[in-house]
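Project standup — Tuesday

K.O.: blocked on the structure for the chain from last sprint. Re-posting the sequence here as requested.
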Amino acid sequence: MDTQTLIASSPGELTEYLWTRFRQVEPTDPPLGHRFGDEPPALFVIQTVRDSNDPGFRRRVVNAARRNLSRLALQLVAAGENKPSSEEDDNQLASLAYFASEIGARELSDALYQFASAWKLERAGFALAATAGLAHVVRTLVRLQSSGRYAPFWRDLWEDGPVGLAGLAFHGWFRADPDDALEHLGQLVERAGSLDLPGVFWTIVSEDYPGEIEVFRAAAACDEDQRRRLRLALVQADAGAATLRDFDLQGNPPALDDGGFPWSTDVPKSRSEAPRWGG
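H.V.: unblocked you, prediction finished:
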Protein backbone atom coordinates (compact mmCIF):
# COMPACT_ATOMS: atom_id res chain seq x y z
CA MET A 1 0.00 0.00 0.00
CA ASP A 2 1.27 3.47 -0.91
CA THR A 3 -0.29 6.89 -0.50
CA GLN A 4 -1.66 7.15 -4.04
CA THR A 5 -3.30 3.74 -3.78
CA LEU A 6 -4.81 4.70 -0.44
CA ILE A 7 -6.16 7.97 -1.81
CA ALA A 8 -7.69 6.16 -4.81
CA SER A 9 -9.38 3.52 -2.64
CA SER A 10 -13.15 3.21 -2.67
CA PRO A 11 -15.17 3.84 0.52
CA GLY A 12 -15.53 0.11 1.07
CA GLU A 13 -11.83 -0.49 0.54
CA LEU A 14 -10.93 2.30 2.97
CA THR A 15 -13.27 0.89 5.60
CA GLU A 16 -11.74 -2.57 5.38
CA TYR A 17 -8.19 -1.21 5.26
CA LEU A 18 -8.67 0.79 8.47
CA TRP A 19 -10.30 -2.20 10.13
CA THR A 20 -7.40 -4.55 9.50
CA ARG A 21 -4.59 -2.01 9.98
CA PHE A 22 -5.93 -0.49 13.18
CA ARG A 23 -6.48 -3.98 14.62
CA GLN A 24 -2.86 -4.73 13.62
CA VAL A 25 -3.80 -7.77 11.58
CA GLU A 26 -0.58 -9.20 10.13
CA PRO A 27 0.91 -8.54 7.72
CA THR A 28 0.38 -4.78 8.02
CA ASP A 29 0.78 -2.89 4.75
CA PRO A 30 2.98 -0.92 4.81
CA PRO A 31 4.82 -2.59 7.70
CA LEU A 32 4.91 -0.76 11.01
CA GLY A 33 8.26 0.84 11.81
CA HIS A 34 10.09 0.00 15.03
CA ARG A 35 13.41 1.79 14.57
CA PHE A 36 12.44 4.73 16.77
CA GLY A 37 9.89 2.91 18.91
CA ASP A 38 6.61 1.35 17.88
CA GLU A 39 4.98 3.24 15.03
CA PRO A 40 1.27 3.97 15.67
CA PRO A 41 -0.81 2.00 13.12
CA ALA A 42 -2.75 5.16 12.27
CA LEU A 43 0.35 7.20 11.42
CA PHE A 44 0.50 6.21 7.73
CA VAL A 45 -3.15 7.20 7.24
CA ILE A 46 -2.71 10.45 9.21
CA GLN A 47 0.29 11.48 7.12
CA THR A 48 -1.57 10.68 3.91
CA VAL A 49 -4.49 12.89 4.97
CA ARG A 50 -2.12 15.72 5.87
CA ASP A 51 -0.14 15.46 2.63
CA SER A 52 -3.18 15.11 0.39
CA ASN A 53 -4.83 18.18 -1.13
CA ASP A 54 -7.95 16.16 -1.89
CA PRO A 55 -10.80 17.13 0.48
CA GLY A 56 -12.79 14.23 -0.95
CA PHE A 57 -10.22 11.78 0.38
CA ARG A 58 -10.38 13.26 3.87
CA ARG A 59 -14.16 12.97 3.81
CA ARG A 60 -14.03 9.35 2.64
CA VAL A 61 -11.45 8.26 5.20
CA VAL A 62 -13.30 10.01 8.05
CA ASN A 63 -16.49 8.22 6.99
CA ALA A 64 -14.53 4.96 6.90
CA ALA A 65 -13.38 5.61 10.47
CA ARG A 66 -16.99 6.30 11.50
CA ARG A 67 -18.10 3.00 9.99
CA ASN A 68 -15.28 1.26 11.88
CA LEU A 69 -16.47 2.81 15.14
CA SER A 70 -20.06 1.73 14.46
CA ARG A 71 -19.00 -1.81 13.60
CA LEU A 72 -16.81 -2.05 16.69
CA ALA A 73 -19.63 -0.74 18.90
CA LEU A 74 -22.07 -3.31 17.52
CA GLN A 75 -19.49 -6.02 18.06
CA LEU A 76 -19.09 -5.06 21.72
CA VAL A 77 -22.86 -4.85 22.25
CA ALA A 78 -23.30 -8.31 20.76
CA ALA A 79 -20.69 -9.62 23.18
CA GLY A 80 -22.39 -7.89 26.14
CA GLU A 81 -19.33 -5.73 26.82
CA ASN A 82 -19.16 -2.11 28.01
CA LYS A 83 -15.56 -1.65 26.93
CA PRO A 84 -13.03 -3.32 24.61
CA SER A 85 -12.42 -6.83 25.90
CA SER A 86 -9.67 -8.00 23.54
CA GLU A 87 -6.29 -6.58 22.60
CA GLU A 88 -7.43 -6.21 18.98
CA ASP A 89 -10.53 -4.24 20.00
CA ASP A 90 -8.53 -1.99 22.29
CA ASN A 91 -5.78 -1.38 19.73
CA GLN A 92 -8.40 -0.48 17.17
CA LEU A 93 -10.23 1.95 19.46
CA ALA A 94 -6.95 3.61 20.46
CA SER A 95 -5.94 4.00 16.79
CA LEU A 96 -9.32 5.41 15.77
CA ALA A 97 -9.21 7.96 18.61
CA TYR A 98 -5.61 8.89 17.79
CA PHE A 99 -6.48 9.26 14.10
CA ALA A 100 -9.44 11.52 14.89
CA SER A 101 -7.36 13.67 17.23
CA GLU A 102 -4.42 14.11 14.89
CA ILE A 103 -6.48 15.22 11.89
CA GLY A 104 -8.93 17.25 14.00
CA ALA A 105 -11.98 15.20 12.97
CA ARG A 106 -14.59 16.79 15.22
CA GLU A 107 -17.24 14.99 13.19
CA LEU A 108 -16.15 11.77 14.93
CA SER A 109 -16.61 13.15 18.46
CA ASP A 110 -20.09 11.75 19.03
CA ALA A 111 -19.13 8.31 17.71
CA LEU A 112 -16.17 8.23 20.10
CA TYR A 113 -18.30 9.54 22.95
CA GLN A 114 -20.54 6.49 22.63
CA PHE A 115 -17.66 4.36 23.88
CA ALA A 116 -16.97 6.69 26.80
CA SER A 117 -20.63 6.80 27.84
CA ALA A 118 -21.00 3.01 27.51
CA TRP A 119 -18.00 2.65 29.79
CA LYS A 120 -19.74 4.71 32.43
CA LEU A 121 -22.10 2.02 33.62
CA GLU A 122 -25.54 3.25 34.58
CA ARG A 123 -25.40 1.87 38.12
CA ALA A 124 -21.74 1.43 38.87
CA GLY A 125 -20.18 4.62 37.54
CA PHE A 126 -16.69 4.00 36.19
CA ALA A 127 -16.40 0.63 37.90
CA LEU A 128 -14.49 -0.92 35.02
CA ALA A 129 -10.85 0.12 34.77
CA ALA A 130 -10.01 2.23 31.74
CA THR A 131 -8.22 0.43 28.92
CA ALA A 132 -5.56 2.14 26.81
CA GLY A 133 -8.16 2.55 24.08
CA LEU A 134 -10.61 4.30 26.40
CA ALA A 135 -7.83 6.55 27.69
CA HIS A 136 -7.15 7.59 24.08
CA VAL A 137 -10.86 8.27 23.61
CA VAL A 138 -10.94 10.52 26.70
CA ARG A 139 -7.83 12.39 25.55
CA THR A 140 -9.30 12.89 22.08
CA LEU A 141 -12.64 14.12 23.40
CA VAL A 142 -10.87 16.75 25.50
CA ARG A 143 -9.26 18.08 22.34
CA LEU A 144 -12.14 17.79 19.87
CA GLN A 145 -15.21 18.82 21.90
CA SER A 146 -16.69 22.04 20.59
CA SER A 147 -19.56 22.63 23.01
CA GLY A 148 -20.59 22.00 26.58
CA ARG A 149 -22.65 18.89 25.84
CA TYR A 150 -20.14 16.56 27.48
CA ALA A 151 -19.86 18.61 30.70
CA PRO A 152 -21.85 16.13 32.84
CA PHE A 153 -19.58 13.29 31.67
CA TRP A 154 -16.44 15.23 32.55
CA ARG A 155 -17.74 16.12 35.99
CA ASP A 156 -18.67 12.50 36.68
CA LEU A 157 -15.27 11.34 35.42
CA TRP A 158 -13.58 13.88 37.70
CA GLU A 159 -15.59 12.80 40.74
CA ASP A 160 -15.77 9.03 40.24
CA GLY A 161 -13.34 8.08 37.47
CA PRO A 162 -9.93 6.40 37.64
CA VAL A 163 -7.23 8.40 39.38
CA GLY A 164 -5.02 8.20 36.30
CA LEU A 165 -7.54 10.14 34.22
CA ALA A 166 -8.18 12.92 36.77
CA GLY A 167 -6.06 15.51 34.97
CA LEU A 168 -7.75 14.84 31.63
CA ALA A 169 -11.15 14.89 33.33
CA PHE A 170 -10.59 18.33 34.84
CA HIS A 171 -9.24 19.71 31.56
CA GLY A 172 -12.22 18.31 29.65
CA TRP A 173 -14.60 19.72 32.26
CA PHE A 174 -12.88 23.11 32.05
CA ARG A 175 -13.21 23.20 28.26
CA ALA A 176 -16.88 22.19 28.40
CA ASP A 177 -17.97 24.38 31.35
CA PRO A 178 -15.17 26.61 32.64
CA ASP A 179 -17.31 28.40 35.22
CA ASP A 180 -18.37 25.17 36.89
CA ALA A 181 -14.89 23.64 36.76
CA LEU A 182 -13.22 26.74 38.20
CA GLU A 183 -15.54 26.63 41.20
CA HIS A 184 -13.75 23.37 42.04
CA LEU A 185 -10.22 24.63 41.47
CA GLY A 186 -9.41 23.95 45.12
CA GLN A 187 -10.23 20.28 44.56
CA LEU A 188 -7.70 20.20 41.74
CA VAL A 189 -5.02 21.41 44.15
CA GLU A 190 -5.98 18.88 46.81
CA ARG A 191 -5.67 16.04 44.31
CA ALA A 192 -2.20 17.12 43.21
CA GLY A 193 -0.71 13.90 44.51
CA SER A 194 -2.52 11.92 41.82
CA LEU A 195 -2.08 14.25 38.86
CA ASP A 196 0.38 16.64 37.25
CA LEU A 197 -0.76 19.89 38.85
CA PRO A 198 1.76 22.14 36.99
CA GLY A 199 0.79 20.57 33.67
CA VAL A 200 -2.97 20.71 34.21
CA PHE A 201 -3.00 24.22 35.71
CA TRP A 202 -0.75 25.65 33.00
CA THR A 203 -2.92 23.99 30.34
CA ILE A 204 -6.12 25.66 31.55
CA VAL A 205 -4.33 28.99 32.07
CA SER A 206 -3.17 28.81 28.45
CA GLU A 207 -6.64 28.18 26.99
CA ASP A 208 -7.98 31.08 24.92
CA TYR A 209 -11.30 31.02 26.80
CA PRO A 210 -12.00 32.25 29.38
CA GLY A 211 -8.38 33.45 29.64
CA GLU A 212 -5.74 33.50 32.34
CA ILE A 213 -7.21 36.43 34.27
CA GLU A 214 -10.50 34.59 34.86
CA VAL A 215 -8.56 31.52 35.98
CA PHE A 216 -6.50 33.64 38.36
CA ARG A 217 -9.64 35.26 39.75
CA ALA A 218 -10.94 31.79 40.55
CA ALA A 219 -7.61 30.97 42.17
CA ALA A 220 -7.96 34.05 44.36
CA ALA A 221 -11.02 32.41 45.93
CA CYS A 222 -8.94 29.44 47.08
CA ASP A 223 -7.43 29.35 50.54
CA GLU A 224 -3.93 30.66 51.15
CA ASP A 225 -2.21 27.27 51.00
CA GLN A 226 -3.98 26.33 47.78
CA ARG A 227 -2.99 29.65 46.22
CA ARG A 228 0.60 29.08 47.23
CA ARG A 229 0.58 25.65 45.60
CA LEU A 230 -1.03 27.01 42.43
CA ARG A 231 1.62 29.71 42.19
CA LEU A 232 4.34 27.11 42.69
CA ALA A 233 2.72 25.06 39.91
CA LEU A 234 3.07 28.06 37.58
CA VAL A 235 6.72 28.40 38.51
CA GLN A 236 7.29 24.71 37.87
CA ALA A 237 5.58 25.09 34.50
CA ASP A 238 8.07 27.85 33.61
CA ALA A 239 5.45 30.60 33.54
CA GLY A 240 6.90 34.01 32.76
CA ALA A 241 7.23 36.93 35.13
CA ALA A 242 4.21 38.71 33.64
CA THR A 243 2.01 35.68 34.22
CA LEU A 244 3.15 35.36 37.83
CA ARG A 245 2.52 39.06 38.35
CA ASP A 246 -1.02 38.69 36.98
CA PHE A 247 -1.59 35.77 39.34
CA ASP A 248 -0.37 37.77 42.34
CA LEU A 249 -2.41 40.83 41.44
CA GLN A 250 -5.69 38.92 41.31
CA GLY A 251 -5.09 37.62 44.81
CA ASN A 252 -3.81 40.85 46.28
CA PRO A 253 -4.48 43.87 44.01
CA PRO A 254 -2.27 46.85 44.88
CA ALA A 255 -3.74 50.08 46.10
CA LEU A 256 -3.94 52.58 43.25
CA ASP A 257 -2.17 55.87 43.54
CA ASP A 258 -3.57 59.20 42.44
CA GLY A 259 -2.79 58.51 38.80
CA GLY A 260 -5.05 55.48 38.74
CA PHE A 261 -2.33 53.01 37.77
CA PRO A 262 -0.30 50.70 39.98
CA TRP A 263 3.34 51.50 40.66
CA SER A 264 3.38 54.84 38.80
CA THR A 265 1.54 58.12 38.58
CA ASP A 266 2.46 58.43 34.91
CA VAL A 267 -0.42 57.64 32.58
CA PRO A 268 0.84 55.20 29.89
CA LYS A 269 1.15 56.71 26.43
CA SER A 270 -0.44 53.65 24.82
CA ARG A 271 -2.48 50.64 25.80
CA SER A 272 0.53 48.39 25.22
CA GLU A 273 2.48 50.25 27.87
CA ALA A 274 -0.18 49.75 30.54
CA PRO A 275 0.62 47.05 33.10
CA ARG A 276 -1.39 43.84 32.66
CA TRP A 277 -3.59 43.41 35.63
CA GLY A 278 -7.22 42.93 36.47
CA GLY A 279 -8.43 42.33 32.88
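K.O.: great, moving the ticket to review. Residues 55-78 form the longest helix (24 residues). DSSP finds 15 helices and no strands in the chain.
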